[in-house]
Amino acid sequence: MPKQEETEVVVVGGGQAGVAMSEHLSARGMPHIVLERGRIAERWRTERWDSLVTNGPVWHDRFPGLEFADADPDDFVPKDRVARYFEDYAEKIHAPVRCGVEVTSVTKTEGEPGFLVEYTDGTTQGRIRARAVVAATGAFQQPSIPPIVSDEAGLTQLHSSQYRNPQQLPEGNVLVVGAGASGVQIADELQQSGRQVYLSVGPHDRPPRRYRDRDNVWWLGVLGLWGKATPPQGADHVTIVVSGAKGGHTVDFRDLAASGITLVGRTSAFDGTRMRFNEDLATNIAKGDANYLSVLDAADEYIERNGLDLPEEPEARVLGPLPACAVIPITELDLAAAGVTAIVWATGFRLDYSWLHVDAFDQQGQPVQQRGVSNEPGVYFLGLPWQSSRGSSFIWGVWHDAKYVADQIVIQHDYQQYESHRDRAAADTMPSSCADAHVEHLEKVSHS
Ligand SMILES: Cc1cc2nc3c(=O)[nH]c(=O)nc-3n(C[C@H](O)[C@H](O)[C@H](O)COP(=O)(O)OP(=O)(O)OC[C@H]3O[C@@H](n4cnc5c(N)ncnc54)[C@H](O)[C@@H]3O)c2cc1C
To answer: In this structure, are 366 and 331 located in the same domain?
Structure first.
């Protein structure tokens, strides 16, 4: 018989979302347990490439309650430092995190409030009955690779979450598909290591790293863009190309081309020999440029309206000519002839809630939720892209979303605690032994 415990809230996942959730639940006095299948911030440790640093400076990419004491506020710190930060944070707030515990199933307990959470620690299985469950397993769960190249194509294929460093790849040239923050950084690293790299570029936004002495994260903040509301359901996700690498710099595809990377448009098909690319490279770069210039415009306007004394930076508006590979686009590439032996798919992630057996998903398996509160009373999500705003899936934003979710959990808890006049009168008129039993029953229900 598996061990069974009871608590108010089970939080699944001990990444930044789970740690933030724990802080806010503790602040509200709400008993809870955080279950993490690996270690705290496991994805920062083992699911990212070796040289990754934060995409935002650490004065911003952190929780309010702790600074990165050993770093300059404008630094972009290595991924392992981020993992240590969340470990330290969990310790500081005494977060009740149990590591090495994988949640295998969450089901509604029929005929009584709450859920049954089943887990395994690898050797034993256990169960926890909880009034509420928070799915804090992140937005970046399963690699998403478009079905373009079969496994039998004789090429090494890996997702950006499996890429570690250039030495991991076989000798030869590399195609990197996807030019978001991950794709451009991986392509750059591979090119610097001496490989010929082809980088497939889709639609993107590319804000300036810094403009007029302020980082992009500051501009997003003062211009109200972090707080921008959730886009309509089904709206296209536009990749944001930013980089904290090399001390942080604006990503310009002209620079990548000048370093020797061959840019191509979106990857569309593979016939076993030739990879085909859409003829959209110049358009994608032009739209990225327009986005870049629009941020400069908005920043200039903000400075003007508020009379800020920030240095002018007219050179930021000077964009060079399009690289030759964008003017005369390559629309197909014989991979063997080009010496390409590996493909890195930097094509994003999909969600996986296969363990969560509740009525909180639409037909496509997407969570049905508003600001993390799902369709299934008692089930909450945290860390989803655009859960409440642009910031939701980032370090900075998830802390604020967790606060809201904790509030909602406490509000529901308080409703459950309500006793009517009739309930109280019934308790008062009971013989003392019955009254005790009644109180015991109410307590049991409220803690189950
Ligand atoms: C390459 C990359 C770089 C990024 N850089 C930045 C950055 O610089 N700044 C920033 O703000 N954001 C960044 N992000 C976005 C975001 O901050 C991170 O993805 C972050 O890891 C998300 O935290 P999370 O807690 O929501 O999810 P995760 O970190 O994914 O944590 C979820 C946890 O749940 C655990 N888990 C999953 N399933 C189960 C289960 N069934 N039972 C128990 N545990 C389970 C996992 O082991 C994991 O530890 C980056 C994302 C990527 C992909």
So the answer is: no
